[in-house]
Amino acid sequence: METKNFTYSIQTEKSPEHVFKAIREVRSWWSGLYNESFSGETKELNDEFSFRAGDGAHYSKQKLVEVIPNERVVWLITESELSFLEQKDEWVGTKIVFEISEKDGKTELVFTHQGLTPEIECYDSCAPAWSMYLQEKLLPLIR
Length: 143
Hints:
The protein has 143 residues and is an alpha+beta fold. Helix content is 23%, strand content 40%. A hairpin with a 4-residue loop joins β3 and β4 (58-68).
C-alpha cells in the first residue's frame, strides 16, 4: 500500500511570483488561529525558524533546505515537541513542500507535508489544522 502524505492544492489567477512571495511571508499565514509565535528567519536557503502554537501544545523548528524562486520551497523539520502526542517528536525529519507551477493558464500551489500520513498519530489533528491555515490564511493572501 502506498503511503499517502497530506497534500493540499490551491489554484489562483495570480502569478507564480506572487504565490512564492506569499509562501515566504510565513508569519502572515501560519498564524492567527492558535496563539502562534515565531523566532528566526523564513525566506532564504538555510534560514531556520521556530514555531510555537496552542499555548505550548506545538513547538517545531524548520530549516529551509530548498528555495527555488517561483517554483519550490522545502522546509525540513529539525525539532518538534508536540505535547498532545505519545511520540512528541513525530514531525522530526518530515518535510513541508510548496510546489508552484502553471496549469491550465493558472498558478497552482501544491502543499505537501511529507511524512504526515494517516498511519501516524498526529494526522487526525495536524491535517485539519494545515487545511485551516492553508484555506483560511494563505489562500486569501494569494488570491
